Amino acid sequence: MGHGDCTWPVSDIERKYHDNEWGAELHDDRKLFEFLILDTFQAGLSWKTILNKRENFRKAFDGFDPERISEYDDLKLEELMQDTGIIRNRLKIQGAVKNAKAYLKAVEEFGSFDSYIWSFVGNKSIVSSINGPEDYRATCPESDAMSKDMKKRGFAFCGSTICYAFMQAAGLVNDHLNTCAYKNRK
């Protein structure tokens, strides 16, 4: 099956991501953490850039293991700053460590990151009515609330726009075009 009618996936890697992940409801804590870290690095860049470096990020960040990332020291941060396979931005690398620590606290408090993050949408995906590119938005009240709460809990790079992109990636929001073959996927 092709990428349906959604117009944004133009490269092979984007089509594969669209067809297999984007907008599908995600409840796996480790995968949610991966998207959180990838969205940290995506800030100000294209998602295609991140997708092209995803395997490099996976290797550099110990398979997105939040416990290991939360313990990164200055030596590891310097090692990451030298890794040409990832986005070498010191603030974003430090943000990933900060997010790992905040993630672990959220898991401890809520039992799972899934329980925490899906609470912002009442545990049910928001299905947007998208007829064309003009209907896309960058934030919503739920991403505003998520951003505010995540900042309070010590997360970094979690503005409402980044939260909304995370929500799209993890299926908390389904922004496929109404005519897309993947609109009704769970």
UniProtKB/TrEMBL annotation:
* GO terms, molecular function: DNA-3-methyladenine glycosylase activity
Write out the coiled-coil annotation as residue ranges: none
* Protein origin, superkingdom: Bacteria
Concerning Pfam families, the annotation shows: Adenine_glyco
Which principal EC class is assigned to this enzyme? Answer: hydrolase
Note the InterPro entries from the entry.
Answer: Adenine_glyco (IPR005019), DNA-3mA_glycosylase (IPR052891), DNA_glycosylase (IPR011257)
What Gene3D superfamilies would the database entry show? Hypothetical protein, domain 2 (1.10.340.30)
**SUPFAM superfamilies given for it?**
DNA-glycosylase
Q: Which UniProt key words apply to this protein?
A: Glycosidase, Hydrolase
What are its E.C. numbers?
A: 3.2.2.20
Q: Which protein is depicted?
A: DNA-3-methyladenine glycosylase I
